[in-house]
């Protein structure tokens, strides 16, 4: 019996067993790494599920109708109020810019071509040289740059006033019912 055991425990068989156990150990390590990755993903998914359930519970707790999940109304009302205030400020600013544009001197070349002959405005209303003046100082009422600026400013003013009217309507609705975000 011992002679048979000694023959089976030869160098070749021992190397083969060592290789097989090494292979099994590598497989064990790979499976352990995969299991650790799956466990981490499962924990992350579990946290996300808990967060979503917490949000759902909070939203349903603030809602009047069961099954209806609305965003928090206080923050939406505050946002609408802020939007109203900003739209009003922007409208005021654009209206003041329109008045400022109307104060620009008239284009002298158009006046002279029109046959007026008299100069109603100064040729150089600033003591600075023309090349040193900012572009706004060089605007003349009626010239192409002034017309373009005036047109775009009037368009922005109209858009801002339309937005203010829309926000006023939304603010009126908030006093009557709850807001739904889009």
TrEMBL record:
Keywords: ATP-binding, Nucleotide-binding. One of its GO terms (molecular function) is ATP binding. One of its GO terms (biological process) is ribosomal large subunit assembly. The keyword Ligase does not apply. GO terms for cellular component: nucleus; preribosome, large subunit precursor. Transmembrane segments: none annotated. This is Midasin-like. The gene is LOC104962412.
């Amino acid at each position: 019996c011992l002679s048979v055991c000694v023959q089976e425990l030869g160098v070749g068989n021992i190397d083969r067993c060592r290789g097989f156990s090494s292979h099994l150990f590598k497989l064990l390590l790979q499976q352990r790494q995969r299991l650790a990755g799956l466990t981490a993903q499962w924990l992350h998914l579990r946290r996300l599920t808990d967060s979503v359930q917490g949000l759902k519970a909070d939203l349903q707790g603030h809602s009047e109708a069961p099954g209806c999940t609305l965003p928090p109304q206080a923050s939406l009302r505050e946002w609408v109020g802020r939007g109203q205030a900003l739209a009003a400020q922007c409208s005021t600013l654009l209206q003041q810019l329109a008045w400022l544009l109307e104060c620009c001197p008239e284009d002298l070349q158009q006046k002279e071509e029109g046959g007026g002959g008299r100069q109603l405005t100064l040729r150089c209303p600033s003591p600075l040289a023309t090349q040193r003046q900012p572009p706004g100082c060089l605007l003349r009422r009626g010239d192409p740059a002034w017309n373009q600026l005036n047109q775009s400013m009037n368009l922005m003013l109209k858009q801002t006033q339309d937005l203010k009217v829309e926000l006023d309507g939304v603010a009126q609705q908030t006093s009557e019912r709850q807001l739904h975000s889009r």
